[in-house]
Specification:
Blueprint: H1 2-6, H2 15-19, H3 31-35, H4 39-52, H5 59-71, E1 76-80, H6 83-93, E2 101-104, H7 111-119, E3 122-125, H8 140-143, E4 148-151, H9 163-172, E5 176-180, E6 188-189, E7 192-193, E8 200-204, E9 218-222, H10 225-234, E10 239-241, E11 244-245, H11 256-267, H12 269-287, E12 302-303, E13 309-312, H13 316-325, H14 355-363, E14 364-367, H15 375-395
Helix pairs in contact: 4-11, 5-11, 6-7, 6-10, 12-15
Bound molecules: pyridoxal-5'-phosphate.
């Protein structure tokens, strides 16, 4: 009985045991805790923008762009309004549009495909490797047609995609490689920062991302001077000079307050990523030995930053509810792969087309992950998860 209590087999036992269940609040993300130690730095940064009135584009954006390019080991960074805009702008800047195809993966946030569609081009999906959950380079060549113009590998959860193979194939077919690095600021692949690997990279600074603004923001990085210049023109209504619109662009500028806040937060990014990695190591140590819990793989070629720590488990949805009762907030990234979303019905994909993406979509559970997590919270999550999975085995 004592052992049963410890393992949390509460379902079939007396109510007295239910009372002994531990409840520790573990939010999925705690931006308050994350900002608390840098609160005065952030306030000073906002204050400076208000004092100078440089709200849209301008010196704070330029200062952040410079710092972010350096951080990503690239020559240029271009600040924009969001990660969705940055994906779209990069494709637009390469002249990609109606009649073209862009290859990406179905297990990403919807925006990856959405940005392709907004250029008028068609998203073409290929499956991911079951182990890393990033684009499987072995499937790339067969998906290339005379219409293919670009490839968008996604560094999902902070795990860099297998860029060497993707770049080699893309080069042979003269395809533009755009990294979707929205979840991976600071991650490394074979000793190089993501953002510096493809022809261009897209970042999101949505507040919940591992480098998050205090609102919406995004950026692009590249070593291509002509591309950077074109991105700057396109994000500002196609103007190279004031009131001279050489083409039809958009308002996709980054705002000054976001740039100032990001400049502060960038200084702390390496430390934050280090903490994420340390938390992930504890999760893996506590969960990796369980026969029914699959922890994320960590290829030696990559230093991933665990924007998301997701395990694969049976009865995922039931487990999510059980953990919530123990005070633990989890999420699912992403329950429905993009090719099965109703918005993409017209592309004609069907269930079973991408087994690795579909299977992982039904099994993945994202555990609480942010730099300020306490060890006690991580241990509570791990114990609660093990107990939940064990209790399901008992019921069978
Ligand atoms: C968040 C995200 C985006 C979109 O970024 P926004 O800033 O929210 O527009 C694109 N791709 C991936 C993989 C993302 O996680």
């Amino acid at each position: 009985m004592a052992a049963a209590c410890q393992q949390g087999r509460y379902n079939s036992i007396s109510p007295k045991v239910t009372l002994t269940r531990k409840r520790i609040e573990v939010p999925f993300l705690d931006l308050g805790a994350h900002h608390s130690p840098i609160r005065s730095e952030l306030m000073d940064a906002i204050h400076e923008v208000v004092e100078s009135n440089a709200y849209a584009g301008g010196p704070f954006v330029e200062r952040f762009e410079h710092a972010f390019a350096q951080y990503c080991q690239t020559k240029y960074a271009v600040g924009v309004g969001s990660g969705t805009e940055s994906l779209w702008l990069a494709l637009k800047a390469k002249g990609i549009g109606p009649g073209d195809e862009v290859i990406t993966v179905p297990n990403s946030f919807f925006a990856t495909a959405e940005a392709i569609s907004h250029t008028g081009a068609k998203p073409v999906f290929i499956d991911v490797s079951n182990e890393t959950l990033t684009m499987d380079p072995a499937l790339l060549e067969a998906a290339i047609t005379h219409r293919t113009k670009a490839v968008i590998p996604v560094h999902l959860f902070g795990q860099p995609a297998n860029l060497d193979s993707i770049l080699e194939i893309a080069k042979r077919h003269e395809l533009f490689v755009l990294e979707d690095a929205a979840q991976a600021a600071g991650a490394e692949y074979k000793g190089r920062r993501v953002g510096s690997l493809g022809d261009c990279a897209s970042f999101s600074f949505y507040p919940g991302k591992n480098l998050g603004a205090l609102g919406e923001a995004g950026a692009l990085t590249t070593n291509d001077a002509a591309l950077a210049q074109r991105l700057r023109i396109l994000r500002d209504h196609g103007q190279a000079e004031k009131n001279e619109h050489s083409e039809i662009g958009w308002n996709a500028r980054m705002d000054g307050i976001q740039a100032a806040a990001l400049h502060v937060k960038l200084k702390h990014l390496d430390q934050s990523n280090e903490k994420r990695r340390a938390h992930a190591a504890i999760y893996t140590e506590l969960l990796g030995t369980h026969p029914r819990i699959e922890t994320p793989s960590e290829p030696t070629s990559a230093e991933q930053i665990f924007h998301v720590y997701a395990v694969r488990i049976p009865n995922r949805d039931q487990t999510l509810d059980t953990l919530a009762k123990d005070g633990i907030q989890c999420f699912i990234h992403y329950p429905v792969p993009i090719h099965l979303q109703s918005a993409y019905q017209h592309l004609g994909y069907a269930k079973g087309d991408f087994p690795a993406s579909e299977e992982s979509a039904s099994q993945l559970l994202s555990l609480p992950m942010y730099p300020e997590l306490a060890r006690e919270q991580i241990v509570h999550v791990a114990e609660s998860l093990r107990a939940a999975v064990d209790s399901q085995i008992d019921q069978q």
